[in-house]
Write a structure and sequence with these properties.
alpha/beta, five-stranded mixed beta sheet, globular
Length: 175
């Protein structure tokens, strides 16, 4: 029997950094653990709500990108939707009760969308990819698997899903 894929959920910034440079990206299995990258519809909604993000990433609504996101988004059962809402509510409540822990060094606390992404990681046992340190702190508080972007890139490079030139391009985009 073949092993089930390991879901790797990208937060908004991770998706925006990678989507233009790794094609195709979502739904492609790679590595020994059969990692599969995905996003939540909430990521798309977050970009559409932000004039700054729409301006900075005009390619986001391009036909190919939109079609890939639509085809590869995770579908949730009614039970999972309920569990996701409950987990998101707990995470968001925790952030609001402990806001000082998430705002040190001028950081912003995890947003409702950030909490939803982490909640998905919790209920689906997925790995969340984010470079948001507040999200890493929250993930640690609730024992949710989380990677920095460079950890994902290393796994993608090892699996030959990307090459050194793409890694260089992605790191340049971080600057």
């Amino acid at each position: 029997m073949s092993k089930a894929p390991t879901l790797v959920l990208l937060d908004t910034n991770a998706y925006l950094r990678l989507a233009k440079r790794v094609r195709p990206m979502l739904g492609v299995e790679f590595g020994q653990k059969k990692y599969v990258l995905t996003i939540l519809r909430d990521v798309e909604q977050e970009v559409h709500r932000s004039g700054a993000l729409k301006f900075k990433f005009p390619w986001f609504d391009g036909e190919d990108f939109a079609a890939e996101r639509l085809a590869k988004q995770v579908r949730l059962s009614a039970d999972e939707k309920g569990r996701l809402e409950a987990a998101q509510s707990v995470l968001r409540g925790w952030v609001l009760m402990n806001s000082v822990a998430y705002t040190t060094a001028g950081r912003s606390p995890p947003s409702p969308t950030d909490c939803r992404v982490l909640a998905f990681g919790q209920i689906r046992n997925a790995i969340v990819v984010t470079d948001d340190l507040g999200m890493h702190t929250l993930a640690k508080d609730f024992d949710i698997s989380v990677w920095h972007g460079h950890e994902l890139l290393k796994k993608m490079l090892t699996a030959k899903l990307i090459n050194n030139e793409q890694v260089k391009s992605i790191f340049e985009a971080l600057g």
